[in-house]
Write a structure and sequence with these properties.
This protein is α/β, with parallel strands linked by helices. It has 2 domains: about 230 residues, Rossmann fold (3-Layer(aba) Sandwich); about 130 residues, 2,3-Dihydroxybiphenyl 1,2-Dioxygenase, domain 1. The protein is about 35% helix and about 25% strand. It contains 12 helices and 16 strands. Strands 8, 9, 10, 11, 12, 13, 14, 15 and 16 form a 9-stranded mixed sheet that branches. A hairpin with a 4-residue loop joins strand 14 and strand 15. Helix 3 runs parallel beside helix 4 and helix 4 runs parallel beside helix 5. The longest helix is centred in the first third of the chain and has 24 residues. The termini are far apart. The structure holds NADP nicotinamide-adenine-dinucleotide phosphate. NADP nicotinamide-adenine-dinucleotide phosphate binds next to helix 1, strand 2 and helix 6.
Length: about 375
């Protein structure tokens, strides 16, 4: 039987090492890298007792090193999983952006954004990504939330997230995941909080089950959080908190009069400008949204759907967009776009119902994302 092969960058300690140990236990062949050869060799010695391990010391920003990794992957028949985990925090203590030395910033972007893409390119160039391969790009909450003092690292992770999303759009046939592993007790985290006691943070091993769901499951490309993926089964179901029927109407005023004034449905919210018009009406436990064509086209564009929603669309307010999306896809629905973070802090994604199931009525999943502040 051919063994599964994983290439994990930055695997001499921290999260990369935790992932390598777990996959070694599961019988995977491993290609590992890190710059420091002593720590990497120690990992190689430890895991060779369990599985096939090829450890190559080098800097992921070095193209010759990446070619070496890709050639090794090719010789093993290609990789089933690439985990772009190696990363740098940048300068510690973390400077604010106005004081950020630009050479340091370039190193951060070279390591956290350009090198992982370059590694994907190098593997692809020698056909070393198997057809069902998963690419897992390790990002961070700092790539989504604008925490003061996290500018260099945070901006690089935001770029890495967007790069991953675009790659997923360009290669819908691939499984591309970008995942926030959560705060972990590691050397990088200590560098982020120099001199502080970080022993209350989770060990990197606690993030591993979330990665295993991406590696072993069939979740759609997209952004994930390890903490949500690794919760016990009853908690991983996304809860639907509400449903909205959105009707695109030719005569907005008459439709509003019919339901708002006629049926007496209360106005919850409205968006009215010269061209776009929308009103959200309460309808007992559901809501009814009336929009004109311009507003419908605007929402189609924001949610990245290339197919017009048409006259009616169902929108579900869910506790976890990614889990609800996975559940819809597992039941035959098709994603019409990647999930997008809207300017009103909702994570939205558009779907088409399965063949034979109201194909004309699209579905939107919507999760409210609360901006948070990083704990210092
Ligand atoms: N720790 C957290 O709280 C946290 C939170 C969110 C996201 N993350 C992300 O999780 C991932 C793992 O972080 P971690 O906390 O486990 O970090 P870590 O403990 O510092 O480990 C980083 C690993 O990457 C290697 N590495 C660093 N730069 C490299 C380079 N240029 N080329 C090759 N290898 C390199 C390191 O070895 P050498 O130094 O010897 O090269 C080490 O093996 C990163 O992508 C990080 O951004 C971490």
């Amino acid at each position: 039987m051919t063994k599964n092969v994983a290439l994990i960058t930055g695997s001499s300690r921290g999260l990369g090492l935790a992932l390598a140990r777990e996959l070694a236990q599961d019988g995977w062949s491993l290609i590992l890298d890190a710059r420091g050869s002593a720590a990497l060799q120690a990992v190689e010695r430890e895991l060779t007792a369990i599985t096939q391990v090829i450890a190559i010391a080098g800097d992921i920003t070095d193209s010759a090193h990446r070619v070496q990794l890709a050639d090794t992957a090719h010789k093993l028949g290609g990789v089933d999983v690439l985990i772009n985990n190696a990363s740098t925090l940048g300068i510690s203590p973390r400077p604010n952006l106005l004081e950020y030395p630009l050479e340091g910033l370039e190193t951060v972007f070279r390591t956290n954004v350009i090198a992982p893409l370059a590694l994907i390119q190098a593997l692809n160039a020698v056909s070393a990504l198997k057809s069902a391969a998963r690419i897992i790009n390790v990002t961070s909450d700092a790539g989504v939330e604008p925490y003061a003092g996290w500018g260099g690292y945070g901006a690089s992770k935001a770029a890495f997230e967007h790069l991953s999303a675009i790659l997923a759009a360009e290669r819908p046939d691939w499984r591309i995941y970008w995942i926030d592993p959560g705060d972990m007790q590691t050397q990088m985290h200590q560098e982020a909080f120099p001199g502080e006691d970080i022993s209350d943070r989770a060990l990197p091993e606690e993030s591993v089950p979330g990665f295993l769901r991406l590696i072993n499951g069939d979740l759609p490309s997209g952004r994930y959080q390890a903490s949500k993926l690794s919760k016990p089964n009853q908690e991983v179901q996304s809860q639907v908190r509400g449903m909205r029927l959105t009707l695109t109407v030719a005569d907005f005023e008459r439709a509003a009069a019919l339901y708002r004034d006629g049926l007496g449905l209360p106005v919850i919210d409205q968006w009215i400008d010269e061209t776009s018009k929308g009103v959200l009406l309460g309808a007992g436990t559901a809501t009814l949204e009336l929009v004109n064509k311009a507003q419908a086209a605007e929402v189609d564009a924001i949610e990245g759907s290339k197919i017009e929603a048409g006259q009616a669309r169902l929108a579900f307010d869910v506790s976890s967009e990614q889990l609800a999306a996975a559940a819809l896809i597992e039941h035959g629905a098709t994603a019409l776009s990647n999930a997008v973070l809207t300017s009103w802090h909702h994570l939205n994604q558009r779907f088409q119902a399965p063949h034979g199931v109201h194909e004309d009525i699209q579905l939107t999943l919507s999760e409210v994302v609360t901006p948070t502040t990083k704990v210092e």
